[in-house]
TrEMBL record:
Gene3D superfamilies for this protein: 3.30.70.1730
Similarity comment: Belongs to the universal ribosomal protein uL10 family.
Transmembrane segments: none
Keyword GTP-binding: no
Top-rank taxon: Eukaryota
InterPro entries in the cross-refs: Ribosomal_uL10, Ribosomal_uL10-like_sf, Ribosomal_uL10_bac_type
Protein name as catalogued: Ribosomal protein L10
UniProt GO cellular component terms: ribonucleoprotein complex; ribosome
Species name: Basidiobolus meristosporus CBS 931.73
Keywords: Ribonucleoprotein, Ribosomal protein
Amino acid sequence: MLSYTSSQVLTVVRRAATINAALPATSIRSFATAKKELPWSRDPSKEYPLRKSFLHAEYLKRLEAPVIVVLQHNNLTVPEFIEARSQLKKAGVKLQTMRTGILRVAIKKTRYENLTPLLYGPVCFAYTEGAEAPNAITAILEVANKNKKLNVLGGKVENSLANIEDLALISKLPSLDQLRSELLGTLDHPGRTIHNMLNRHPQSLLQALSQHEKNLSGESS
């Protein structure tokens, strides 16, 4: 069995006291109440990298929509937002809130970068992937006019930027179906006119043709 002198024991105790004084408190209470991040804890700045990457890619895809109107929503309640989205859905328009910080980064060095001045504060996109531009913009402007918490800032139609005045003008254009109907009516008008004339005066037409035939016979004789 090893034996220690009193001086050796005193030296060991002093060294242990010196080491303990240099170490931070590691009691259960100190761990539970510590405000600083522990060395092995997760970095808060990297908590949602996948979410940000997902939104970045989604926003770039969203900008490919043919019609986008940028709206600022000021103190819009959840029920009000749901109501606006429901009204727009009937016209084939979708409404989505946007995280402008991520959106501004996403559009840098793209053809949509000129939208940046509109992307500050609480912003949402009203966009359509199928409805025609005049119909979609008309529905968006009507919903915004009914709800004063939704302010139209501008947008894009196809690959062109549009301010508020541009959007108002586009909303007044006839739809593609209307243009087709008018074009068909214009092309069909001469044919219908001839058809109506033939139906109204068949006897006169027969007499005219008969007289023309007699004239030709007289010339040949």
